[in-house]
Amino acid sequence: MTPSAALALLSALSTLAIARAQGQGQVNMFANVGSSGVSAQQLFLGTPTKLYFIDKTENNTLRSPSGRHPAWATEFDLTTMEARAMEVPTNSFCAGGTVLGDGRWLNVGGNQAVINNGAGAGDALKTDADKAAAQAGENEYGDADGRKAVRILSPDDSGAVEWVDDAKNYMSTERWYPTVETVEDGSAIIFGGCQNGGYVNDPSQDNPTYEVSLV
Question: What's the whole-number mean pLDDT along residues 33-59?
């Protein structure tokens, strides 16, 4: 579509929207189509019929497939308007994301493990061993530290795909709020971020490095 054609289409749609709004209440065209089950920190269309949602660690009512913790990701079927809970074991709060050259989706980094009201898992514990165990997922939400995590999804229409969150593919350093870009060879370059979530303009938390994801 040429720029002029795009502008003409936008103008026509705007005129139509204004005409429909005059003298009547505005109808939400997305009402009553079902629930995603989780919030959309990230959202993408994986196939023509599948939407994927990724949330942060949160006490959502929908449970993960294992039942061990609340669901933080879902697959939404556009034909049935129903959500399927997916398993994401690490905290994806403020993760970065992109699509790889082979069609897989990449979600990287995030925050430390948290519990109720966003408190750091293990902060109130006394020993280093207990703190480490809480950050590894032994806490009330069952989430693990996601700052180094690399999560991969290969979308399809089977209704059975899951995010692969494998420690052998993890990044070399912690990254909260990283920038991610797909490069020419189909891999992804991951820039910066912070070593901890909740950035407050503290230079000691900066991570001024980059790395390439080849998974």
Answer: 93
